[in-house]
Structure formats: structure tokens, C-alpha cells
Amino acid sequence: MIKRAEHNRIKLSKISCSVIGSIFDLAKRHFPNTIRIETTNACNAKCVICPHRKMQRPISYMGDDLFNRIIDECAEYSCSNVHLHNFGEPLLDKNLSKRIRYAKKKGIKRVIIFSNGSLLTAQRANELMDAGLDEIKISFDGATKQEFEDIRFPLKFDTVVTNIKELVRVRNLNKFPLKISVACHSTSDKDETMRSLENCVDEFCFGKVHNWADSEGPRSAGIQIPLRSTIRKPCSRVWRTFTMLSNGDVALCCLDYEGKVVLGNVSTASIFEIWNSKSYNQLRLFHKTAQQDQITICKNCSKSFW
Q: If we measure between CA atoms, which residue out of 276, 283, 281 comes closest to residue 260?
């Protein structure tokens, strides 16, 4: 009975990965749809749902020359989505507004950042919007002040709520075309989470808590990752997004916080070359053939199962 169940699991995994992977192959472009640039991997929070506190990579900031070269190539290939964040708090980058302005000057259609909101003063908000920022997503977990501060230590609930409301006020006053979203992955009550910013932001996005590739995830903090299926699925990230770390290394995806699977470095090769390389295509083939266990960080990643 056990052998039959395992046989069925493998069979369904192969079908799932083959069908969806083939669709991803057809949709794949010669240049990534979404570029994620980690201008810094520094962060001022120690959130219990994030392994940043365990990260061994040195804290660093991307240099202007490398950043500009990346943006120039994105503009050359008409990449429409550039995210200026990855595994850090982008507002710790003092040059962030200048980088946004450069990207918009080069014709990048959508420039986006993901922030914890703690450093988003009215002055900083105005600088970002004046530079041309198109969208900001703010992480906001927990249904109450206590729950928020337990999860997103040592950030302060009142400070973040005030900053978000001030961001909205400045945007509306100056009629900036900025989209403001709040993203939540852990809360005991979705309605209560939204009530804190009711009739304020443009959108609430609720996701599921996940592990971080090969790490144990937030279980040790008492937050349980939802039970997942044992059926494999291909991860769209390897067909859709391109993630650069602050030192120029190209990581497999945004969940590879240590940069364990490095596919190249944009200091020595172009985005186009790396994206279409033999090693990148081999990773896609592993996902398409339900062989994710051949990739260290994909083997137990909760994003690799239904």
C-alpha cells in the first residue's frame, strides 16, 4: 500500500511538473520579466519569520557603477519590472532615491520596493515619490500591536502605522501616482490586520508563511508552516525572476538568502548570458522533470510542493 502511494505521488509529481513546466517554457522570454536587485542586504529588523538574523553573508551595499550597468542592460532589453530589494531593508540604502531616479530616467516602466516601513518618514517618502517610485509594498504582520511587535522585533507597531498613513497623506497631497500595498504573511486575524489601516492603503496582500529553501523556517518561533502536499510542482521563479545579490552574484531565487546556488556574477557576465546559460536551463529542467531534489535549496523548499 505504501509502495503504491509513493508510486502515485511520483507519477503525479512528474505529470504536474511536465505540464506546468512546458507552459513556463513557452512563456519564458530571452530576458527576465522581473529583475530583483539587492542594493543592500542590511536590515534593521529581526523578524521571527525571516532567517536574516542567521545570515552569514557579509553586509554590503551595491556600488553605483554595477547598479547603473544592470539598469542599462534592463533598459536595453525593455525589462518592465525592476525590484530594488531582496534580502534586506532597501531604505537603509542612502542612495535609493538616486537609484530609482536613474532607473526611471532610463525608461524602466515599473520600479518597486518592498519595505518594513520603519524608516519611512515623510521626508523619505517624498524623496522616493519625487524620484519616480511606482510601487511600494510594506510588510505588516500581526493582528494587534503585541502580535506585530512579537513577530517583527524590534520594530514598533505605532511607528509603522504612522509612517504608512503619512506616506498615503504625502502621496495624495502631491498627487503622486504611487501604488501602496500592505503584505502580510502571519496574522491571527486578517480582518483585524486590515482594520489598522482601514480605508488607507490601496491593497492588502495575504500570503502563506513558508520555509526559506533548505532552512527550517519559523517553526522554532512557534509559527507553523501550513501543511503541504507531497506532490511536486515547478517553481515559476526559475522561469520568471532574476535575483542579484549586493555583491553582483546571481542567486537561484529570492529564498536563497545565503547565495548557495550562484549562477554567475553580473560584474563579469551579462544578465542575458546568465539567464540563457546551460546551468540556468539545467535547473529549469530539474523543475520540469520533478527532480527538484537535485538542487540543494529546492529539495525541501515549501514553494516546490502544492
A: 283
C-alpha–C-alpha distance, residues 218 and 254, integer Å:
17
* pLDDT above 50 for 110: yes
Give the separation between CA 45 and CA 257, rounded to whole angstroms: 15
Using only C-alpha atoms, the chain has a radius of gyration, in whole angstroms, of: 20
Ramachandran bin of 248, using left for φ above 0, alpha for ψ from -120 to 50, beta for the remaining angles: left
The pLDDT tens digits of the residues spanning 231-253 come to 999 999 999 999 999 999 999 99
| Torsion angle in degrees (nearest 10) through CA of 13, 18, 24, 30 | 130
* Interatomic CA distance for residues 146 and 101, integer angstroms: 37
Using the predicted structure, report yes or no on whether residue 82 has a pLDDT greater than 50. Answer: yes
What are 82's strand-pairing partners?
A: 35, 111
pLDDT of residue 224: 58
Starting at the edge strand found earlier in the chain, the sheet holding 135-139 runs 203-206, 179-184, 135-139, 110-115, 81-83, 34-37, 241-244, 249-251, 262-265
Residue 96 burial (C-beta neighbours within 10 Å; 0-12, 13-18, 19+): buried
